[in-house]
Amino acid sequence: MAGTWSNARGNGRGNGAAVALQAHEKASDWAPRLEHILHKQLELYRQLAALSTRQQALIAQDQTDGLMALLTDRQRVIDQISEVNREVEPFATQWTSLVGQLEAEPRQRLGLLLEELDQLVAEITSRDEQDRKVLESRRAEASDALDDVSRKRAALGAYGGPRPGVQTTHVTPRYQDRKG
Question: Domain 27-158 is of which CATH architecture?
Answer without folding.
Answer: Up-down Bundle (1.20)
